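Re: beginner question about structure tokens

> Can someone show what the tokenized structure looks like for a real chain? I only ever see the sequence side.

Sure, here's an example I had lying around. Input first:
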Amino acid sequence: MKALSVIILLLALNVTGQEETTGSDNMTKKNSVYLELLGTSMVPSVNYERFFLRKFVSLGTRIGIGYSPENYQKDVISLPVELVALIGRKRHHIEIGFGFTFYWEIFNKKYHNQGNGNINQQFFEFPRIGYRYTAKKGFVFRIGFTPVIQPFELSMFDRQFHPYGGISFGYSF
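And the corresponding structure tokens:
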């Protein structure tokens, strides 16, 4: 229920944030669509991002969907949601963010004797720090450090931290 509330809040901020910038020194475009390899989804994902404040520090939200047929025994689906901040002007930005990913492993019932197949659901948190380049014509390149934190299975002091990273290519408009 808490996660659903966060998703609704992020999407509401996305819809209500309609501020425009008039300065020509800010190259942060309002919308971006990109393919991320690894990163916060942990599998290849397609993502949509929308900025609702576009100044020296630009703020936005991002949602994506990832899929990977890991092998013949299981498939992986993930849903990353993130609050993103870009720091800088023109085309080069430092990118910071924090979000979470819903992650499902769907096991093929043909290879597992568990009725209709088994679904393993997990929830991960992740911070992000990285570099983002946006060309004048809209090309976007992102690379970042996105460590994965498993928050719920263990106590606060026994959380599992996994170094991770990702790279993205896409288009801003």
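Each token stands for a local structural state, so reading them left to right follows the chain. The radius of gyration is 17 Å.
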